[in-house]
Amino acid sequence: MPQFAANLSLMYTELPFLDRFAAAAEDGFTAVEYLFPYAWDARTLRARLQAHGLQQVLFNAPPAGLGRAAMAAAWDQGERGTAALPGRQAEFRAGVLQALEDAEVLDCPRIHVLSGIVPPGVERESLKGLCVENLQWAAEQAGRAGRTLLIEPINLRDMPRYFLNRQDHAHELLDAVDSPHLKVQMDLYHCQIVEGDVATKLRRYLPTGRVAHIQVASVPERQEPDRGELHYSYLFELIDQLGWQGWIGCEYRPAAGTRAGLGWRAPWLPG
Ligand SMILES: O=C(O)C(=O)[C@@H](O)CO
Ligand SMILES: [Mg+2]
């Protein structure tokens, strides 16, 4: 049976961030993910998780910045990671170390590392070596800390010039980095927009054990997975048949209220 985690950055936005934990638990979620913890003291977030019987299953390393305040502000300033960006290695390393520290407090096993926006005039291919070198260093740190780092192919309509867009490119990076501590975050919304053939890709990649997290949303609106051009009930059954034991993050923007839109989950609730 697929297990769903609420994404508190996109869901429950009717509520202030810290109140979203309680709302997700009231709706029967036992796990959450969200973009970033850096605007908060991680102990405040841990207290919310514990108070509501939730586990944190994923968050992102900082998109850029040196120091917690700069890391917390970087996303709104347009930063989308530094793993593949020349001249940003100090920020990349500081970000990974900060994320690992927060993961310890939050008892979170997975951290998504963003690779960055390809600078104007630069060829994507030319950044691969640097990205591999950075990810090798980061995977080693993650391994020591008992965490798994993830990379996620993201579509270019939502994130123009983002470095990593295709599933095969993510798996090529895994080949090159060659670490058990680096895996793929397979977001089916992005996968459908960039390359399609989603069921075939699930059949190809889930059995490899190299996918450590799945995310879902309708395409193209990025809303509940009961609408749009992807037939999610088929995909959820397939994911189940493929023996997936991991989490599926609900990374969607509810069409008309989070709770009102949760009907799609009914066939997948335990008991
Ligand atoms: O945008 C997505 O999809 C994500 O999973 C984020 O963590 C990164 O933008
Ligand atoms: Mg995603």
List the helices and strands and how they pair.
Elements (H helix, E strand, L loop, with lengths): L2 E5 L12 H7 L4 E3 L8 H10 L3 E6 L7 H6 L15 H18 L3 E3 L15 H18 L2 E4 L15 H11 L4 E6 H7 L3 H8 L5 E6 L15 H10 L5 E4 L21
Parallel strand pairs: 1-2, 1-8, 2-3, 3-4, 4-5, 5-6, 6-7, 7-8
Helix pairs in contact: 4-5, 5-6
This protein binds ligand LASSHYVV and magnesium ion.
Describe the structure.
Belongs to the hyi family. It is a single chain. With 271 residues, the protein is α/β, with parallel strands linked by helices. It has a single domain, classed as Alpha-Beta Barrel (TIM Barrel). It has helices at residues 20-26, 42-51, 68-73, 89-106, 128-145, 167-177, 188-194, 198-205, 232-241, and strands at residues 3-7, 31-33, 55-60, 110-112, 148-151, 182-187, 211-216, 247-250. The protein has an eight-stranded parallel beta barrel, surrounded by five helices. Helix 1 links the parallel strand 1 (3-7) and strand 2 (31-33). The longest helix is centred in the middle third of the chain and has 18 residues, at 89-106. It is globular, with a radius of gyration of 18 Å. The termini are close together. The mean pLDDT is 98. The structure holds the ligand O=C(O)C(=O)[C@@H](O)CO and magnesium ion.
First-to-last CA distance: 11 Å
**Percentage of residues in helical conformation:** 25-40%
Count up the helices: 9
Report the CATH architecture: Alpha-Beta Barrel
